[in-house]
Amino acid sequence: MKFLSEYRDGALVLEYMDQLRKTVTRPWTIMEICGGQTHSLVKNGILDMLPKEITMVHGPGCPVCVTPLGIIDEAILLAMRPDVILCSFGDMLRVPGSRRSLLEAKAEGADVRIVYSPLEAVKLARENPDKEVVFFAVGFETTAPANALSLVQADREGLANYSILASHVLVPPAMEAILSDPESRIDAFLAAGHVCTIMGMNEYDPIVEKYKVPVVVTGFEPVDLLQGILMAVRQLEAGEYKLENQYARVVTRAGNSIAQAVMKDVFDVSDRAWRGIGTIPQSGLEVNQRYAAYNARTKFNLAETEVKENPDCISGAIMKGMKKPFDCPMFGTVCKPEHPLGAPMVSSEGACAAYYHYANTLQET
Amino acid sequence: MTSPLTLDCPMPKLDFDVITMGHGSGGLLTQRLLQSGVFDLLKNEHLDQQHDGALLDLSGKVAFSTDSYVISPIFFPGGNIGELAVNGSVNDLSMCGAIPRYLSLAFILEEGLHMEEFWEVLVSIRNASLRAGITIVTGDTKVVEKGKGDKMFINTSGVGMLHPRAAISWQAVKPGDKILVSGNIATHGIAIMSRRKGLEFETTIESDTAPLNHLVKTLLDVVGEDVHFLRDPTRGGVATVMNELASIAKLGIELKQTEFPIDEQVMGACEMLGLDPLYVANEGILLAVVADHAADGILAAMRNDPLGRSARIIGEVGSSHPGQVVLQSAIGGRRVVNYLTGDQLPRIC
Prior knowledge:
The complex is a heterodimer. By secondary structure, chain A is α/β, with parallel strands linked by helices. Chain A has helices at 10-23, 35-43, 63-66, 69-79, 102-107, 118-127, 144-157, 171-179, 193-199, 205-211, 222-237, 257-266, 296-299, 315-319, 343-346, 351-359, and strands spanning 28-34, 54-61, 84-88, 111-114, 132-139, 162-169, 188-192, 215-218, 243-245, 267-274, 278-287. Helix content of chain B is 28%, strand content 23%. In chain B, helix 1 runs parallel beside helix 3 (115-132) and helix 2 (81-95) runs parallel beside helix 3 (115-132). The longest helix of chain B is centred in the middle third of the chain and has 18 residues, at 115-132. Classes of the chains: A alpha/beta, B alpha+beta. Chains A and B meet through helix 1, helix 2 and helix 16 of A and helix 7 and strand 13 of B.
């Protein structure tokens, strides 16, 4: 497929692999931020092909994984109301809340619909004026602009029966939280290409400077990832720390200013709890005062309750890059995708689920 | 392939436009529905008896299979639920190494179903039966209240006679066997998804629903005993069938990503929706595990059949990593291909 197969070219991957082998002299730990990158590394079998000096650790960039249990419970509570149609992206449905998942709520009669775009949820609100349509707005900076736009659209049409339950998180504060942890052992980051498509690169300059850490904005295909890793390793080997852009075919320095404007118009930056990590200051987006009528939390008077996570789960350490899924005794035994104990096992893009699905203990004999 | 409403089977003039509860009552309305159309359309010596069941003359080893069809939407690019219901049971019998002969046909209709839709499905069932060369010998029609069905559910059961050279069983699968797929993967699933409410996208992808019995017969006629295992990878796709085989036979399976035949549009849709084509449903293709020495001949035979033109050898059976399916990725990496937990759900980003 044009513009895709070029970035999955086996020969090119091997060439980068070769250059990487020639460049690397010491052990380095590199974190890829985005779950999509983790998924691609594992799915393509790249982790096992890398030189042994390079350790990839997997960041917190799976929006489904980091959505706190309390918010999932809120969504389920809303979905169970007979007057509510709850809309969500597909992979959020299977995630268990403290008692059940949205999929189970659906089986019990809740009206839960999978949508591909929040604008479909707006359409549902238009078509069902006697129902309250709530969109479960989960995601990083990537999904935030379209979710914001759905409120602008609903407001323009005067759709009083539309609202969103926002669980938006931001990448740079999470990177800072990881870097400022005294146990952090991350030498370089691959920043999430799609987040930077929206936000540009400027937010990462202060992080590079403050923590003296190389950051390479990277795409998602095998060639992208290999090139990103090579760029990071070259900096590390040369003792440099810079912000570089591997994903230049998509990402510009300033990002998408229209998308940024609509986010700014609708959301305020707020403190946010991350499942498995805890509350990170100024790391989330909440619907602002101007659009408060479309905020499901205000509209339905919801109070997020704090739900205790399973103490056996080491997801915090995994998402901060201190541990790997195989380090966890629960991995693949008690904790499986059909029965996840914690964040990284719940969505296919979580590090544990990616390992479980694709790297699951190959039993060679 | 969509079956057009041909001139030889125009919809009869009925004094009702939609299915009502009365059509499933067994009373006068049921009779009128059957007499005015269904029996004429599917006419054969068995149905003409209008008996409670069919009396069949069978001798030798018989394969027997049943399946229910609940697909939504009932009309989709490349076919409809009726065609699927015939091909589905025909294919299940074929995968046992049998030559399908007779089918039963049972409808559960939802009150309010438009008669034109019912008729169109019936015509497709007739055409699919002709294409597969099977006879529908007994049937049933029930109606449920509006909201208690999804327009139409169909169950078909079928019987077929075992091919004299068929020896298909997982026990026959051995290390060294080659794995063949008869055509492009993931086509049917993506065709359906492109029409699901809330997910419509523009493509020209059509379902590949087709009866595989002729293809299977050709293979068995020629190389019978060398075909060790046959399966049509419907729900759960190729990955699920391969996992089932690996776990039951306690053998390892190695697949090569670069060898999978897939339509470019289907691949594009999978990329866009975040779906792995290995898990997407198929209809008109089969997976065959065959003896190594016969693989090239079988591949050539498949490619001679109109339904097997894109056939490929996609992998092989081995004795390492028993119970596991391993895929060699396009870039040379290796990974385990597992069972899915549930349906594949589209990802957030």
